[in-house]
Amino acid sequence: MVAPLSAWPWENLGVFKYLLYGPLAAKVMYSWIYEDSIKDLWCLHILVICALRGLIHQLWNSYSTTLFLTRNRRIKQEGVDFKQIDREWDWDNFLILHALLAYMACLIFPSLDDLPLWNPKGFITLLFLHVTVSEPLYYWAHRLTSAYDKFLSAAAGHATFLEHLILCVVIGIPMAGSIMMGYGSTSMVYGYVSAFDFLRCLGHSNVEVVPHEVFNKLPFLKYFLYTPTYHSLHHTEMGTNFCLFMPLFDALGNTLNRNSWHLHKKISSDSAKNGRVPDFVFLAHGVDLTSSMHAPFVFRSFASVPFSTRIFLLPLLPVAFLVMLIMWAWSKTFLISFYNLRGHLHQTWVVPRFGFQYFLPFAMEGINKRIEEAILRADRIGVKVISLAALNKNEALNGGGTLFVEKHPDLKVRVVHGNTLTAAVILNEIPKDVEEVFLTGATSKLGRAIALYLCRRRVRVLMLTLSTERFQKIQREAPADCQNYLVQVTKYQAAQNCKTWIVGKWITPRQQSWAPSGTHFHQFVVPPILAFRRDCTYGDLAAMRLPDDVEGLGSCEYTMERGVVHACHAGGVVHQLEGWTHHEVGAIDVDRIDIVWKAALKHGLRPVSSM
């Protein structure tokens, strides 16, 4: 069943819906360029107010998703998943509706251009009309249309076309009444609309920011100001708490949920306590300035799709650069996202460092300190497994996590680099009939494991390395009857007839040119190599899709598809689900590659085909 007037007239226009602001913008531009002054001043006001309202909603959304600030104040602990984000994708439709209706009002009442900037009587009149007309009108309209609430979400801006038509009337009556009485002013319009949206966002934020002590000292105030907890009960217990902002009308209408203030006090009081302890933590890091804006607390909808550089990010780069400097100087590891898997809480923490900083010799000690602090914190609060992302387990940095395990031998938390599953993913992407591969980064942890595994399968491995000593050391680890399958090469030309390249060290377009047509580039290098050759195919970084029963997942991990995580992340998940008690640090145990792969499949993790 579809609720009446639930669809928006411009819902199929996509980004072209913003062209509906065109007539307003055109009038302002024409008046500014060709006339002495902007005659249709309210066209400009409407555009500015829409931008201001959008900013209010965005700031509230950013605050509510800044988990390191709000995790202990969250009302509903479930995460916002991709389905809800998609439902709320066009949350700003109401701004277009209100802008068009406001423009029509300006055309009908040209005297609006004569409103003064300030009139204190207007604020008094507006408050009176809001309490006596808007609040009861919304209460009864909301109560009568409650049958359609199941079609609504928990976002302040997202609602049906019908509800926002009602809101237009609700928000318009106090302003229109004040203006018709001769008390209106421009500041009144700006102030009322901003306050209205602020309170709407407050109620839908899912974060309890109103201290319960306020109601203890001023008990009457709880009937005149709702709280996020109060409004959340309306969405969980549908027959209660219908009010706009004032619970007084629920009390008069006998629809006030009796648990409202008890639950509010409990959540507000518990905010000082530590929340639920995660079972698993993935310790990530920043990649670059642009991708740092892919965080859920920056733009939630943008974070819900795989990262790619967008034009709208470019003006924000100076801000990102400033934030990077601040984090470098003061920030500690922080929580950025979470999801639930079969009753287990999985979180992603971020070391406040970017990719380039890991290659600065003077920054390495500080980075290791941040990683160590995160591991010790996880150990202290009772985390079972912590997995290190790409550069956080760099061999030159900390020996793939060995540094921390040796320094703290009594750790209860299991430290995992996840490279065993990374190797398994890469190896299972290689067709079974392949007889020869070319391997760069051949003497790295992953390169060594891949080479040793493939030679056991009687696959000839061309290992690109200038170090004969390191090559021979790896070759001696192979079974005696397999050692001849490992071949040292020192130039890319040696692979000009090999169509399976495994790239563990970044290669330039010129180096790629030695690959024959039809080559497939598997890779475990960060960042990924450029897809330079049109006659070749390129694999993504090793990754796995999380099980279908994952809950509350609403952000993409860098360039990965929805529901897909890097293999090192997935390796930590498997470690936790299996209940393994060993650390996975240092060199990869080749004998465990198949064990970890089968365990991943057993728990419902699936490979992401890159062919």
From TrEMBL:
Instruction: Offer one Pfam family short name for this entry.
Output: CER1-like_C
What is its membrane topology? Answer: Multi-pass membrane protein
Membrane-crossing ranges are 15-34, 41-60, 94-112, 124-141, 161-183, 311-330
Q: Where in the cell is it found?
A: Membrane
Q: Name one GO cellular component term.
A: membrane
Very-long-chain aldehyde decarbonylase CER1-like C-terminal domain spans which residues?
437-607
Entry keywords, A to Z: Membrane, Transmembrane, Transmembrane helix
Which ranges of the sequence are coiled-coil?
none
Q: Which SUPFAM superfamilies match?
A: NAD(P)-binding Rossmann-fold domains
- What is the protein name given in its UniProt record? Very-long-chain aldehyde decarbonylase CER1-like C-terminal domain-containing protein
